[in-house]
Amino acid sequence: MRRASVMSKTTNKFSPEVRERAVRMVAEQRAESNVIPLRSRMRRTDFKPYAVIAMLFMAVFCAVLFWPTGSTSMAVPLVSSSGFQCQVSSITDGDTLRCVDGTRVRLHAVAAREKDETCSPGHPCPSASGASATAKLTELASGQTLQCEQTGTSYNRVTAICRNEANVEINCAMVQSGTTVIWPKFNQQRAICN
Length: 194
Known about the structure:
- The chain is about 35% helix and about 20% strand.
- It is an alpha+beta fold.
- A 5-stranded mixed β-barrel has the order 1-2-3-6-5. The protein has a two-stranded antiparallel ribbon with strand order 4-7.
- It starts with 15 loop residues before the first helix and ends in a 5-residue tail after the last helix.
């Protein structure tokens, strides 16, 4: 047999002499080039500066994101802790409006048809159209500064009883106009038309 051959014909592996020589060559090459294996180079302590930088970045990001702005909000609290002012910027539908500061206000204990003229399951359904309710709410509140009292929240909206600049309770006026109906479940919690 040929001992000097690179591959053994029976096992199809490198001969011990060849393996020893390869290991010796790699060791010599590492010693000459001072190459350190990746695992020994990447220690846990090597990540500390990056962790500190990442934490600083997150702190600055959160500070910028949640820092109070210098502008004053249009939903200004009144004497009561649940009272606020709403300068109306738009009317969404027959029972929801939006304030200039972005606050969405849902009229408390009032039910109107949706924009597509449907009524949600389990909700009271007035006979009047959603368009007529929207028109009536526009007449009562559009462009005015309302005095509102928060009664709760509903789907990321503040539920409230609001009065317009003529001191008309909008919730009650909407029901009396026939474009909306009282929602008994919520009216029992806090009555409108007082």
